[in-house]
Amino acid sequence: MPPPSRWSDIADDLRARIKAGEWQPGDQLPTSRQLMEHYEVSNPNLLMRAIAALRAEGLLIADPKAPRRGVRVRAQHFFQRELDAYRQEYREALAGRDHSFEKISHIETGVDVDVTYEVIDPPEDIAETLGTSQKVLHRTFTYLADGTPHQVSDSYMTAELAQRLGLGQPTDERPGRTTIAWLLDAGIQVTHTATTLRARIPNPEESARMATVPGVPVFVHKHTLYAGDLAVETGGGLVAADQIEYTMCADLTKEV
């Protein structure tokens, strides 16, 4: 193609190449220098505006693990999640079955999970929910589909309880094993959960964490698991609103 005279020409060509499959979801685009050489442009602003336009369209995202290194093709997966997911997790745990993220979300593609552990003093809201000022284990789960963050979840429980469950480091986690399953196996009878779900525009830190498309809201879900009146675990998560659909099926013939 002849050297582009406008940033939109570069955006049009990159868009066409992405849709043609030259780069797959999760692939990193060539460096800015390589792209400028390819398009024979000397003004970096032309390339920056083209990249910004494709990020606004949701075709590209900043590299979640190294935002300053470049951009990647954003995965276009769409997930479904039942609003009563904890009820399903509980039933699966009672039956001794794992409950994978793929099964929960009704997807066939593989999902990679990055897990981090940190023992910390509880933030004020977590201390109030758990009713303690003792050290807590903060677990973070980042779910990536084709390199694109789909969900980031946080979990908090007392460090003492985590030790009882055998959760001391990320390698202790087992794919498909839920927190409810860990609690039940330790003899802790989970009786109910309190859950909230709301949508809002993410703050800058959350946008960077989720590599969201500008202007796209996130669903913020918070939960607390109880054993009787005792809160044993609490946490929450972020999900990009353009990648999720929440569903619910209710039997109207049963008495409440």
UniProtKB/TrEMBL annotation:
Keyword terms: DNA-binding, Transcription, Transcription regulation
One GO biological process term: negative regulation of DNA-templated transcription
Transcription regulation in keyword set: yes
Domain HTH gntR-type: residue ranges: 4-76
Listed InterPro entries: Bact_HTH_transcr_reg (IPR050679), Chorismate_lyase_/UTRA_dom_sf (IPR028978), Tscrpt_reg_HTH_GntR (IPR000524), UTRA (IPR011663), WH-like_DNA-bd_sf (IPR036388), WH_DNA-bd_sf (IPR036390)
Sample GO molecular function, one term: DNA binding
Any Pfam family the entry gives: UTRA
PROSITE patterns with a match to the protein in the record: HTH_GNTR
Identification of the protein by name: GntR family transcriptional regulator
Native organism: Nocardia ninae NBRC 108245
